[in-house]
Amino acid sequence: MSYTIAIVEDDLQQRMHYADALRQAGYSVADYESRQQALEGFAQSLPDLAILDIILGNEVGGGFDVCRHLKQHNPNIPVIFLTTRGDELDKIYGLQLGAWDYQTKPVSLEFLITRVDSLFRILEASTAKSNGLETRGEVAINPATMYVSWKAQQVELTPTEFDILETLLDRPDGASIEDLVRATRQGLVEDNTINTHILHIRKKFKQVDPDFNCIKTRYGFGYSWTCQ
Length: 228
Known about the structure:
Order of helices and strands: EHEHEHEHEHEEEEHEHHEE
Distance between the termini: 38 Å
Oligomer: single chain
Number of helices: 8
Strand order of the largest sheet: 2-1-3-4-5
Number of strands: 12
CATH class of the largest domain: Alpha Beta
CATH superfamily of the largest domain: Response regulator
Shape: globular
Largest sheet: 5 strands, parallel
CATH topology of the largest domain: Rossmann fold
Strand content: 15-25%
């Protein structure tokens, strides 16, 4: 399957390096130098993946704005932030916006291609799972489409959040931090990153049910799904 990747990067040389490497790897690439240019392009066609710098020209948070725009139009579009901004607060904010990954420059082209290939393998594996809707109490999930609902109301999760939720549901005795790290299939993941994903999942369920309280913290261990 041919995938289209959007690159939003204001540095021409870097943008061309990324675009050329991805095209050589077999991907279609649309490259943009500014937030406005990207939004105009997305109005015509949404990508299968977006790789975003955060600082775009004079807009210090331009990449965050692009991510919000994409998630509003299709919350399932994965986003990779690729930026010089390595502050932990920026990383947490990027994940809270729904990004699949956050990488701090410099990143080798080989590493970038590996991350992109890994993402699409994960998405394809998820699609290849059973097409049936699985219900566990008030929650229903479809592994093939990564559909989630709570009390018959859809909950929009990112692919990583879905994998974490599925791991929680599959482990009635609780999932350790190590279990959840493996569920992300993203290599080296810090405990704080898992905690951020869990916080984001809770918030999304609470958006459809303010009384939601099914994910319990197991201090020193991990988390448990307690609503069966």
